[in-house]
């Protein structure tokens, strides 16, 4: 568990949020700091748009969104995901999503 500013993050041993539903923008900020993606809070609007899209997509389809479709769906430049989150697995963690399966990891690594 990581505590910061009265936040209690319940993470698994690999740093994934244990409860998808407990995610907030504040938790995302702490996770981003932990993953070395952001050192100041709050997160930028662009990053939050990406994270929220990923969460909504996951909630609807129980799957990681196709990376090249993320930017189009949030109205950002076509390489926004690489600009905002060079490592898609870190974005997944910061979005508070469960640990991906080995198949998803393989797909992320080949398309990311």
What do you see in this structure?
- The chain has 112 residues and is mainly alpha-helical.
- It is built from six helices and two strands, in the order E-E-H-H-H-H-H-H.
- A two-stranded antiparallel sheet has the order 1-2.
- Strand 1 (2-4) and strand 2 (7-9) form a beta hairpin.
- It is globular, with a radius of gyration of 13 Å.
- The model has no long low-confidence stretch (mean pLDDT 87).
Keywords:
single chain; 112 residues; mainly alpha; two-stranded antiparallel ribbon; 6 helices; globular
Protein topology:
Layout: E1 2-4, E2 7-9, H1 25-34, H2 45-61, H3 67-74, H4 80-84, H5 88-94, H6 102-111
Antiparallel strand pairs: 1-2
Helix pairs in contact: 1-5, 2-3
Indicate how many domains the architecture comprises.
1
Tally of DSSP helical segments: 6
Radius of gyration: 13 Å
Task: Describe the largest sheet.
Answer: 2 strands, antiparallel
Brief summary:
The chain has 112 residues and is mostly helical. The chain has helices at residues 25-34, 45-61, 67-74, 80-84, 88-94, 102-111; strands at 2-4, 7-9.
